[in-house]
Design brief:
Blueprint lengths: L7 E6 L3 H12 L4 E4 L11 E3 L6 E3 L12 H6 L1 H4 L2 E2 L3 E7 L3 E6 L2 H6 L5 H12 L2 H8 L10 H14 L12 H10 L9 H16 L4 E2 L4 H13 L3 E3 L13 E6 L3 H8 L5 H8 L6 E9 L13 E6 L3 H12 L9 E4 L14 E9 L8 H11 L7 E7 L1 H7 L15 H5 L16 E3 L13 H15 L12
Parallel strand pairs: 1-2, 1-10, 2-9, 6-12, 10-16
Antiparallel strand pairs: 3-4, 5-8, 6-7, 11-14, 11-15, 12-13, 13-14
Length: 488
Amino acid sequence: MTTPRPELDAVVVGAGPNGLAAAVTLARAGLRVHVYERADQAGGGAATKELTLPGFRHDVCSAVHPLAFESRFFREFGLPSRVEFAVPEVSFAQPLDGGRAGIAYRDLARTRDGLGVDGRAYERLMRPLVERASGVADFTGSSLLRLPRDPIAAALFGLRALEQGSAVWNARFREDAAPALLTGVAAHTILSQPSIAAAGAGLSLGTYAHARGWPIPIGGSQAIVDAMVDDLRAHGGEVVLGRDIVSLDELPSARATLLDVTPRALLRLAGERMPWPYRRALEGFRYGGGVAKVDFALSEPVPWTHPAVRQAGTVHVGGTRAEMAAAENEVNRGRLPERPYVLVGQQSLFDPGRAPEGRHTLWTYTHVPAGSPADREEAVIAQIERFAPGFRDTILATSSRTAVDVERHNPNYPGGDIAAGAPMLRQLVRRPVLSPDPWRTPVPGLYLASASAAPGPGVHGLVGWFAALSALRHEFGTSALPDLSPRP
């Protein structure tokens, strides 16, 4: 008796950046691939929509893309030749009271010169990493159980993460601007401060800021997604929108199934297929704090007191290192800080098409305890107003989402956790399990291809790429890397 031929070679659940990266990789290997997405628009955390007023286009989650040029998947895919990017001279800024600010220029020497007595110390911390940015990206952009291709970069990075993630994090600094710059980036993680994992994330993002900058896609994050969807379709793949998969039994038969979902959803989809030791490991996977998001339609740019902040693609609002650490530690204790850390994106300064002529968008989110129903719009406005008096008067309309709303919009963000799992050190090594091939599950032909797997959160496509390469090895018997480069 012969086994029926599968309907497809591979199916992918979830059309976020990782799911699409997996699908593109498999389609480029000559396989028949279908992608199923519950939303009516591909993109997941990289979608772009009108959220406030007609003509104002806002990024739903991710906005600025430090890994657009450094991710190995995006380099193989040739993303910069497919999508137009603006790269601000000021990668990020940290406003401080009294009209002061720390300014992280793409040019590290210019950043050093603006940091006063701490300039040399900041440069000594960052220069060795910036000079080995590709090595840093390789080390942090794969399973930490794999040997780094640039061990010197890995060692330099590790020593600096140990320093900035410990109680001696201020030892090399004398003033507040330089350490505030570092903590403003490290706080992206929604982790306690200081911590090694938060410091590592901050150092890697800071490295890219000074190496090639933090790119902003023209037209919104959706442009990255659209480029992947276009490539997938050009190579025979299909994307099915508005299809909420609640069981693997609903999918067409395929030799490989890749899921861009959380471990919680993986267990629900797989049901009794999952052996209990692996099930137990996934049940112990921890999710982190959430975000509350506020988008603004503005009559004019934010009137920051420090003029250079008006040139930054990203602004970290929260004051000094001590203030931001206190705010983030409050969140990790389950409380709402009175003066929160606020992450701000000023995309329309560099992409005027995001808003009607003369108008602007502003993208913000702040951290809250997981599952918090708190609307943080007023707290965000007050914190920005602290460093930009008159900001309130520029607001034309807002769109505010609680952590509950964020999860409702995207189930891959449990409790509003946009990292799809707390990126603490233990859970970066075991993401989601301790394995040199963490994307492959014990169920034959089933792979995890979401940010809940190594190397973790971010718009980089690496998880989907690694999961697809694992599937190609184990299900299709090939270790060859498919050519992802742009073709006519």
